[in-house]
Design a protein that fits this description.
Blueprint lengths: L2 H34 L3 H38 L2 H28 L1 H8 L5 H14 L2 H17 L4 H5 L1 H37 L2 H6 L13 H31 L6 H12 L3 H19 L3 H28 L1 H9 L6 H15 L2 H16 L4 H25 L1 H27 L4 H32 L4 H26 L1 H20 L1
Helix pairs in contact: 1-8, 1-12, 2-3, 2-5, 2-6, 2-8, 2-10, 2-12, 3-6, 4-5, 6-8, 10-17, 11-15, 12-13, 12-16, 13-15, 13-16, 13-19, 14-15, 14-20, 15-18, 16-18, 17-18, 19-20
Keywords: Cell membrane, Cell shape, Cell wall biogenesis/degradation, Membrane, Peptidoglycan synthesis, Transmembrane, Transmembrane helix, Transport
Protein name: Probable lipid II flippase MurJ
Membrane topology: Multi-pass membrane protein
């Protein structure tokens, strides 16, 4: 099977599962909100949940990210047995580290809570302290889950790792609905721990089917474990830089009119629903790692080029659609209760300027993983640090003119700068990466999106004239418009890009063959 067909099939599956996972995550927040509202219990739970995340989850995620290129190298050069031996040793080392870290954090939890939540006093402080001790073991299970996920993705299995958020959310939702009144927020905390254990349990059987057998191998001096830690450090620093970046944005927003921080959060939540580029990044990463491990640079370049073109062709029209229909989208999703017209207006401003960086964010995700595949975690870190400086500088320069929009625009410009720097750095590292083809795809996507956007804008206005007022009719108008606009854009791209025509013909022939067999 070709790279394109392989990637498209896997990415499509990951997209569907990720969408379901995000929906269940949204429902989890709705249920927790309906059961506990905005009480001190929820504040205590959120803070207690953040403490292990701040302390170790970023480290666990960094280690999980760096597992893929090293595991792929073992698979390619030394075989599956040696690769699983590496996973066994890494699991045991990380379990030992996280258990020790959990014990130390539990002992020091009174001090940690005071540092992390200095404003918490009295009952809310003691409640946060108890919840923190309950939730600290989550870091052990998150670390183990990330390592297993990395191994499965390296073995080209994406479905189960993509769905682990679904049972996690369902367990918390079920507990809140059935036992919320009886056990309160402590029941939700215990469900969170159980959910993180289940994330391991649903992945482990799949890894066992691939031939993995757990063995207690503990070699702290192993070269491969040392490489994982060395590669993980720049990823961790890059993650920390982004956290600082977000904090600076929120700090500046605190000087803006009331509701600005909330508007940024709501707009960010919508931007975070980019399941397409996330799916492409997840699927392409182990493929690129395998190509580099086998010294197949031509296929590596093809993979990067294909992923970049795919993101351009999908995310540019999504960006145009998000900007044009930002108000009806936000009104349909959020405008109810205390979320009034002013809230919609503020959120739409943030969403519009954040949308300008959607394509760049997708490209950054793919290009960063291209470097990780090359076992270069330093370059994305350096470029990320430069982008943060750009973002902060722009924040200070334009927030006085655009207020809330200036913060969101600065973030989008910084993301664009990052993706361009990564593209340039990758070209310097491995040579030509098909710049002409990528530029051509960008221009075609831009022209096609402009045509689509024009038709969609007038179509939406025409449809809404003939339909009554009401959210159900707003949804109907938006869905019809999206369908028509997508069809126009798809036809335009098919007419201008021969490579897509060939992919569609292949897909049609496969479907025709399957129907003929039936």
């Amino acid at each position: 099977m070709s790279i394109a067909k392989n990637t498209a099939k896997a990415a499509g599956l990951v997209m569907v599962i990720t969408f379901i996972s995000k929906v269940t995550g949204f429902l989890r927040e709705v249920v927790l909100g309906s059961k506990f509202g905005t009480t001190k219990d929820v504040d205590a739970y959120n803070m207690a949940q953040n403490i292990p995340m701040v302390l170790f989850a970023a480290i666990a995620a960094s280690i999980g990210t760096t597992v893929i290129p090293l595991f792929s190298e073992y698979l390619t050069k030394k075989g599956k047995d040696k690769a699983f031996e590496f996973i066994n040793n890494l699991l045991n080392v990380i379990i030992l580290m996280t258990v020790l870290f959990t014990v130390i954090a539990a002992i020091a939890s009174p001090i940690i809570v005071k540092i992390m939540a200095p404003g918490f006093k009295g009952d809310v402080y003691y409640e946060t302290l108890k919840l923190t001790i309950i939730l600290l073991p989550v870091m052990i299970f998150v670390a183990v889950s990330n390592i297993i996920t990395g191994a499965l993705q390296s073995l080209q299995h994406f479905a189960v790792p993509a769905m682990i958020g679904i049972p996690y959310n369902i367990i918390i939702i079920g507990t809140a609905l059935m036992y919320g009144a009886k056990y309160g927020i402590y029941g939700v905390a215990i469900a969170t721990v159980i959910g993180s254990i289940v994330q391991i349990l649903i992945q482990l059987p799949v890894l066992l089917k691939f031939g993995f057998k757990y063995r207690f191998v503990l070699n702290l001096k192993d070269e491969s474990v040392r490489k994982v830690i060395i590669l993980a450090i720049p990823v961790l620093i890059g993650t920390s830089i982004q956290v600082i970046n977000t904090y600076v944005d929120r700090m500046i927003a605190s000087y803006l009119p009331a509701g600005s921080i909330a508007a940024l959060n709501y707009a960010n939540r919508l931007i975070g629903f980019d399941i397409f580029s996330m799916a492409i990044a997840i699927v392409i990463y182990p493929m690129l790692s395998r190509y580099f491990a086998s010294n197949n640079i031509d296929e590596f370049i093809k993979g990067i080029k294909m992923a970049v073109k795919a993101i351009l062709y999908i995310m540019i029209p999504v960006t145009v659609g998000a900007i044009i229909f930002r108000v009806p989208i936000i009104r349909i999703l959020f405008e109810r209760g205390a979320f009034d017209e002013r809230s919609t207006y503020l959120t739409s401003i943030a969403f519009m300027f954040y949308s300008l960086g959607m394509t760049a964010n997708g490209l950054r995700n793919v290009l960063s993983r291209g470097f990780y595949s090359l076992k270069d975690t330093r370059t994305p870190m350096i470029n990320g640090a430069i982008a943060v400086l750009i973002n902060i500088g722009l924040n200070l320069a334009i927030v006085r003119y655009l207020a809330l929009g200036g913060l969101a625009l600065s973030t989008s410009v910084a993301a664009t700068a990052t993706s361009l720097m990564l593209m340039y750095s990758l070209r310097k590292k491995i040579g030509r990466i098909g710049g002409y083809e990528i530029a051509s795809a960008f221009v075609k996507a831009l022209i096609g999106s402009a045509i689509m956007g024009t038709f969609a804008y007038f179509t939406f206005n025409m449809i809404t004239k003939y339909l009554p007022d009401g959210k159900i009719y707003d949804v109907l108008s938006l869905v019809m418009t999206i369908f028509i606009g997508s069809f126009i854009y798809f036809v335009f791209i098919l007419l201008t890009d021969n490579s897509l025509v060939s992919y569609v013909k292949k897909g049609a022939s496969i479907i025709k063959g399957k129907l003929a067999k039936e």
